[in-house]
Structures are given as C-alpha cells and as structure tokens.
Amino acid sequence: MNNTISVIGYVGQQPHSISFGDIGNKVVKFSVAVKEFSANTEENKTLWIDCDAWNGIGDRVLKSVTKGREILVHGRLAMSTFSKEVNGVRVEVTKPVIKLTSFHLCGRKPSSSDTQDAVTSTSSSSKKSRLSAVKN
Fold it and tell me: How far from 125 is each of 25, 70, 75, CA to CA, in Å?
C-alpha cells in the first residue's frame, strides 16, 4: 500500500531548521493550518499539521516558504514520538507529521498585513491561478 498524503492550507510559522552535525543531515520544520470539517457544527476549527522537510527539499522550503503563505504539501504520513514533562510527570506524546516529498506555493506572496489574516482565517478562497511548483 502507498502511504501518501496531500494537504492544502496556510503556513503557521516561519520554517526553521535543525542540523544534525555529526551525520550532516538537516530537517526543516513548519506547520500548516487547515480547516477541520465537522458535519455536526457550523463552527470552523483549525487543525494544525506539522511538516518535516529533510535535506535538499528542506533547503528549498527555507528559501521560498514564509509564514502566512498558502501551500499544498505532498508527503508520507509518519508518527513522531517525544517525551515531555507535564505537571511533574513524564509523558510520551505521539502525533502525526507529514514528511515532505514535494510542495507547491499557491497564490501570491502575502504582504505583511495579509500574513496574520491568512493564518487565522483558513476559509479564504484558494488562489490557484498562479501556482508555482517546487518539487523534490
């Protein structure tokens, strides 16, 4: 079976990189806000999806992806597990993450005044007329 996922939404934070100096790998992390569908309510909720872009595709993400930008991400769904302390108790947290294989920037680059609006309102119409592609 194929493990592929595609999501379109708005970049919620400026992508940042983490380098693993001993082995020369780098991962670029960012999150995408998408509208969560609910048939039982009129309320629109935002679902935040974490994305990881490794090495070469991570370099391209750092150069072209900015907070507030509409983006279509393609990748493989994986589970990320980490430990953290909550109220003095160590807990293990597991959450889904998309490991990018490619991405497409949608619409125009937002101005600084548009950035906050785009992230907080994921119900904006899609601007696919000017689609720029960046592939792995």
Answer: 37, 10, 23
Q: Which two tokens stand for residue 114?
A: 């548009």
- Give tens-digit pLDDT for 93-134: 899 999 999 999 997 776 666 555 554 544 343 333 333 334
pTM of the model: 0.72
The total of other beta-carbon atoms located within 10 Å of residue 114's CB is 14
Q: For the chain, give me the number of helices (H) and strands (E)?
A: 2, 7
> Largest alpha-carbon pair distance within the chain?
51
pLDDT computed for residue 54 by the predictor: 94
| DSSP result, 78-89 | EEEEEEEEETTE
The residue type of 95 is: K
We find that the CATH architecture of domain 5-135 is Beta Barrel (2.40)
